[in-house]
Amino acid sequence: MHASRLSRRTVLAGTAAAAAAVSLPLAQGVAQAAVTPAKRGYRWRNVVQGGTGFITGVLFHPSAKGLAYLRTDIGGAYRWDDRRDRWVPLTDHIGWDDWNLLGVEAMAVDPAHPDRVYLALGTYTQSWAGNGAVLRSQDRGATWQRTDLGVKLGANEDGRGCGERLLVDPRDSDTLWLGTRHDGLLKSTDRGASWQTVSFPAESSATGQGITLLVAVGRSVYAGWGDSDGTSANLYRTADGATWEAVPGQPAGIAAKVPIRAAYDRHTHELYVTYANAPGPNGQSDGSVHKLRVSGGKWTDVTPVKPGGTTSDGGTDAFGYGGVAVDARRPGTLVVSTNNRWAEIDTVFRSTDGGRTWTSLKDTAVFDVSETPYLKWGADKPKFGWWIQAVALDPFDSRHVVHGTGATLYGTRDLKHFAPQIRGVEEASVRQLVSPPTGQAHLLSGSGDIGVMYHERLTASPSRGMASNPVFGTSTGLSLATAKPSYVVRSGWGDNGNGAFSNDGGRTWAPFKTQPDVARSAPGPIATNADGSVLLWSFGTAGPGYRSADNGAGWSEIPTFPKGATPVADPVDPARCYAFDTTTGTLHASTDSGRTFTARATGLNSGDTEFQLVAAPGRTGDLWLSLKGNGLYRSTDGGATFTKVSSCRASYTLGFGKAAEGASYPAIYLVGATDTITAVYRSDDEAKTWTRINDDRHQWGWTGAAITGDPRVYGRVYIATNGRGVQYGEPV
C-alpha cells in the first residue's frame, strides 16, 4: 500500500463530502409524512471487514488490567472488552449534524479512577468544519457528558498520529489539559465540564501543529511543540500547573524536528521522545529517538537506526520515528516504531537496556492474518506495517505489544507471533453497496483505501480479501447487471489498471483489456446495462463519458454524455440508460444503449455535487432523484418529468430492498429527513409513509454515500458510513 493511496482518504472520505452534506439549507414548505418508529426495533451490526483504517492511538489503563482504549482518525473511539476479546465502539451515538466529532484527536484516562475516560473530538480545523468537543464518562464510555469547545480539532489532518494531546493532571484528578493545533493550551479544573485558555510560552503558526503531545512525568506535565522555528525549544514542562518553561539542554538539531510521541519510565526517571522532520503520517524523511534523565537533565541520543542510509536497491532509507511505549514492569525496557519507511518497510524496535541496543521485531515476526485476509493486499504475505505511530505496551504483560497501521492493529504476546487485534473495529469509508439478488454473497462493497470486497458472510472478513486482478486502493464505481447478476464491473485507483469485470458475481475478477487514457488520472463511476452487454464509464469533468460494447476491450467517447454525471442503467430495458447533469439540473436519457444521450426533464436543482439518481428494481423508467436538502423526486416516465415526493424533506441517499409481505412495490430505504431529524427510514408504500429504523444510539455521523436493502431478505438494510464501515440492520 502506497502513502498516496492512504492519504487520499483525507480528501475523499471526509473533507468536501461531509462538509457539504451538513451545510446545505433544507427545503421549506413541504408536506410531512407520518413517521413511526419500527414497531419491534432494529438490531444493528457491522458487516465484518476487520479494521480497514488508520489506528491513531492505543491507550492501556495503567492500573486496571485488561482495560484499553483505541482512537481512529474518522471512525470514533473504542474500549477493549477483555472478556469477549473484542473492541466495543463508544461513539456510534454521534449523529448527522455532528459528523465532525467522529474523528478522535486524543484520549485520556485517570490512573486513580479506572472508570473515568475522556475524548477530545473534532476531525477538521478548516472553516467549514464545526468546533471540537470533549466527552467525559464515569462508566468507561457506556454513557457520556459533552462539553462543546470554542476551538477546532484536527483528528484527520497531518499530525493525527502524534501523541495524546489530552491528559489528566498527575497532581489532581479534577484537572485536565488539552493541547490544540492553533489555539494554544486549554485547562479544565472540573473534570472537563468547562475549559479555559491558559498561558503557554510558544505561539501557534497559522498552518502548524501546535501542541503535539502531553505526558505526565512524575508530578510534572511535559508538552511537545510542533511549530518550532528551527531554533526555539519544542519541549516544555510545568511543575506547578501554573507556569511553563522550555526544557533545558535540548540537543542541537532537535528544534528543527517535531516531537511525535513521548513515554516516561518511572523506574529510571527517564523520558523517551520520538522525533521526525514532519508530523506525519506522510512526508517524514528524517527522525531520531532521544531520552532525558529528568533528575539531572542529561539528554542521550538512543536512535536505533539513523535515517538516510542506503536501501537494498541503492536508494535512500528515508523515514521518521513514531510510536514509543515503556514497560511498566521492567526498568529500561521500551519499544519505538519507525514511520514512513517505505523502502525497507517500517518496524518496531525493542530495547531492554534503556536504548543502548535494539532488536527489530519485524526481523523475526511471524504473521497470521487469516482473520482479515485483505491485509495481504494481493501479495503473498502482509507487511509488518506502515503509518506506525500508535504503539502501546500492556502494563500487565511485558510481551503484549500492539502497533497500529494504516489498516489495522497488530498485536503480539510473545514478541514473535503477530495477528490483527482488531475484532470489533470497522473503520472503512464506504462508497458503494450492491446487494445481489442471487449467489452466495448478499453484499458487495466498495470503499476508500481497500477497494471492493465480496462478502460471502456478513459476520467474517471476506475470505478472498480485497478484490484483486487488479488491486484497487480506492473504489470509484461498482455495478451489477440486473438481468445477469453474475456479471459485475468495478472501477477505482489501481496500479495495474483502473477497471475490471467479474462473471461469477464478484468472487474473481479480470482487468479490462484496454481503458481510456483519462482512466489513469480520474477513474470515475462505472455502470453496466441490464444484460451486461454495454459498459458506461464516467470521468467527472476530466473528460467525456466512454462506452464499451465488448467487455472493456475497446472504448469510444460519448460526446453527448454530461460531464460529471454518474451513469445509471435501467434495470429492465438494456437499451435505456440515464444520467443527471447537476451543473444544469437536467436529466439526460439514452434509448440506444448509451450511444447518445438527450435532455429530458429540466429545471431541477443544480449545483449539487452529491446528488443520487437511483432506478427502482424490476421497473422501466422508474427513477428516484435525491437532491439532499432539496428533497426527493420521482419520475415514472424515464426522466421526462419529475414530481417532488411530499413526504420527504431532505434526501441524501436512497435504495431498495425486498418488498414487505403483501406489498407490490420494493421497500425503500432512505437516509434523510421527513421532519427535523436526519435518520434512517424505511417505506413499504412507495414513500407515502416512513418508519424510522435506527435510533439515537446508532447514528454513525455522516451516512450519505450509499444505502441498499437486501432483495432476498425483507427488512435487512446495508448502510455505508464514513469511518464506521458497513452497518446492517434487521428487524428484531
Quick take:
The chain has 732 residues and is mostly beta strands. The chain is 3% helix and 37% strand.
Walk me through this protein's architecture.
The chain is an all-beta fold and 732 residues long. It folds into two domains: 50-420, Methylamine Dehydrogenase, Chain H, CATH 2.130.10; 430-731, 7 Propeller (Methylamine Dehydrogenase, Chain H). The protein is built from one helix and 59 strands. A five-stranded mixed sheet has the order 1-56-55-54-53, with no helix packed on it. Strands 29-33-32-31-30 form a five-stranded mixed sheet, with no helix packed on it. Strand 21 (287-293) and strand 22 form a beta hairpin. It is globular and about 80 Å long. The chain starts with a helix and ends with a strand.
Using only C-alpha atoms, the radius of gyration works out to 26 Å
Count of DSSP H/I helices:
1
Low-confidence stretches: 1-32
Instruction: Please describe the biggest sheet, giving its number of strands, its sense, and whether it closes into a barrel.
Output: 5 strands, mixed
| CATH level-two architecture of the largest domain | 7 Propeller
Task: List strands and helices in order, with pairings.
Layout: H1 3-23, E1 35-37, E2 42-46, E3 55-60, E4 68-72, E5 77-81, E6 86-89, E7 104-110, E8 113-121, E9 133-137, E10 145-148, E11 166-168, E12 176-179, E13 185-188, E14 196-198, E15 211-217, E16 220-225, E17 235-238, E18 245-246, E19 258-265, E20 270-276, E21 287-293, E22 298-301, E23 309-310, E24 316-317, E25 320-326, E26 334-339, E27 348-351, E28 359-360, E29 366-367, E30 391-393, E31 401-404, E32 409-412, E33 417-420, E34 430-434, E35 443-447, E36 451-455, E37 472-480, E38 488-494, E39 499-502, E40 510-511, E41 526-528, E42 535-537, E43 545-548, E44 556-558, E45 568-569, E46 577-581, E47 586-590, E48 598-599, E49 612-615, E50 623-626, E51 632-635, E52 643-644, E53 650-657, E54 667-673, E55 678-683, E56 690-692, E57 707-710, E58 713-720, E59 726-731
Parallel strand pairs: 1-56, 29-33
Antiparallel strand pairs: 2-59, 3-4, 4-5, 5-6, 7-8, 8-9, 9-10, 11-12, 12-13, 13-14, 15-16, 16-17, 17-18, 19-20, 20-21, 21-22, 23-24, 25-26, 26-27, 27-28, 30-31, 31-32, 32-33, 34-35, 35-36, 37-38, 38-39, 39-40, 41-42, 42-43, 43-44, 45-46, 46-47, 47-48, 49-50, 50-51, 51-52, 53-54, 54-55, 55-56, ...
